[in-house]
Design brief:
The structure is a single chain. This protein is α/β, with parallel strands linked by helices. It has a domain at 23-111 and 138-193. The chain is built from 16 helices and nine strands. It has helices spanning 5-9, 13-22, 29-32, 39-49, 62-76, 85-95, 144-147, 178-187, 206-216, 234-244, 261-273, 288-298, 317-329, 344-355, 373-394, 402-405, and strands at 101-104, 155-158, 196-199, 224-226, 251-253, 279-281, 307-309, 335-337, 363-365. Strands 1-2-3-4-5-6-7-8-9 form a nine-stranded parallel sheet. β8 (335-337), α14 (344-355) and β9 (363-365) form a beta-alpha-beta unit.
């Protein structure tokens, strides 16, 4: 088939549709990528390849869906030193105008080479490229190889691990190496339009978090950072605190890390000066009551945070006491979660006192906090009142009728 698109354009619309409907979905992408914009053709390509296709997640574009998932599949199956990098580069050149998001759910390490050992060699370390020696590296796909072609990338979601490894499980399959980290940090110099970066379930520790954060300082576009389900503790959290006030982050997710008191203090200090962050998720960390009080006090100064998640953080009555004071003054918070913390009956009473003066909070998750049924009931009553007030305020005011607008004539 000729790649001369004007020939196709010269056909009458009904004839063009008939030709496109008859085209095989197995045609080479080198032919169809830039020649065919007909959405029905790309819909057929998608549904024949993937059983579930939610086109609404791709700006309602079947062509974008196809090329994003096609490129994701190639990267997820890439084996360093085995797969031809040319295959990825050619696919990127064909899809670069259509790819805005990459959701990579696994990154494969190199194939492990069996090394014969004599009696003197007892173990082979699983440290990969970070060990140094003669062992094969455990570094993954280098995104710098495709970064220059994907200037329009807006979202990048990564997991440095293997899904469905089954009985072949080894810790090496889930290692984010130092070289991986440095190479990934370098890509942010090219991905200047990146708005969402998510690196989760990848064993990111403090040192690696600091390398990544350093490369994200003053990034012009990033608004959503998700480093959940990693191993970031206080040193990494201090770097993130610095990032908060040298970026335009609106959403920060540090769920399920190891952030403690000092990390919470750093984030609280940044929060007290921050004017853009609206969502903070610190669920499943270890900030304790001192950290909880620091964050609560920061909310007395902050006027932009809308959603705060502090579930399962070893909090109790002292945090509830300070947060109750915040509830009487803060007018921007709309959602708070304290679930799975031992707030207790007295803490519940303090929160109820604070809520009795609050007119803006719409959600308050107090599951598994032992605040008592009575406090929880009356807090929910206040929430319902706030929700109804917000609903009424969001309704457009009716325009004055003509009879009301005109002065009466006598």
């Amino acid at each position: 088939m000729s790649t001369d698109k004007p020939i196709l354009d010269k056909l009458l619309p009904k004839h063009r549709v008939k030709v496109l409907d008859a085209l095989s979905t197995s045609l080479p992408l080198q032919v169809t990528a830039n020649l065919i914009s007909y959405e029905e053709y790309w819909r057929r390509c998608c549904v024949e390849r993937w059983p579930v296709c939610d086109v609404s997640r791709y700006g309602s574009s079947w062509k974008r869906l196809f090329f994003e998932r096609h490129l994701e599949n190639l990267i997820e199956r890439f084996i360093p030193d085995v797969t031809e990098i040319r295959t990825i580069c050619e696919a990127v050149e064909l899809s670069k105008d259509y790819v805005k998001r990459l959701d990579i759910q696994q990154l494969l390490p190199p194939v492990r080479v069996e090394i014969r050992r004599d009696e003197e060699c007892d173990e082979i370390s699983d440290e990969g490229s970070e060990v140094g020696g003669d062992l094969p590296s455990m570094d993954h796909f280098d995104f710098n190889l495709i970064a220059n072609s994907l200037h329009g990338l807006e979202e990048l979601h990564l997991v440095y691990g293997v899904k469905g490894c089954g009985m072949n499980f080894e810790w090496n399959l889930f290692r984010f190496t130092e070289r991986d980290c440095n190479l990934l940090a370098d890509t942010f110099k090219t991905f200047r339009d990146l708005k969402v970066f998510r690196l989760h379930k990848s064993k990111v520790d403090d040192d690696k978090a600091r390398i990544l954060i350093r490369s994200l300082l003053d990034h012009p576009s990033l608004v959503h950072l998700d480093l959940s389900h990693n191993q970031i503790s206080d040193r990494g959290a201090r770097a993130i605190g610095k990032l908060l006030n040298q970026s335009q982050l609106h959403i920060l997710n540090l769920c399920n890390n190891n952030v403690g008191l000092h990390g919470a203090k750093a984030i609280a200090h940044a929060l007290s000066k921050n004017t853009v962050l609206n969502t903070l998720n610190l669920r499943l960390n270890h900030i304790g009551d001192e950290g909880g009080q620091e964050l609560s006090n920061a909310l007395l100064k902050n006027t932009t945070l809308v959603t705060l998640h502090l579930g399962s953080n070893e909090l109790s009555e002292p945090t509830a006491t300070v947060l109750a004071h915040v509830l009487t003054q803060n007018t921007t918070l709309k959602s708070i979660s304290l679930s799975s913390n031992r707030i207790g009956l007295d803490g519940g009473k303090h929160l109820l006192e604070g809520m009795s003066e609050n007119k803006t909070l719409l959600e308050f998750d107090l599951r598994l906090t032992d605040v008592g049924q009575e406090s929880e009931f009356f807090i929910n009553q206040v929430l319902r009142s706030n929700q109804e007030r917000a609903r009424l305020q969001s309704q457009p005011k009716p325009a004055p009728s003509q009879t009301q607008a005109l002065p009466q004539m006598y």
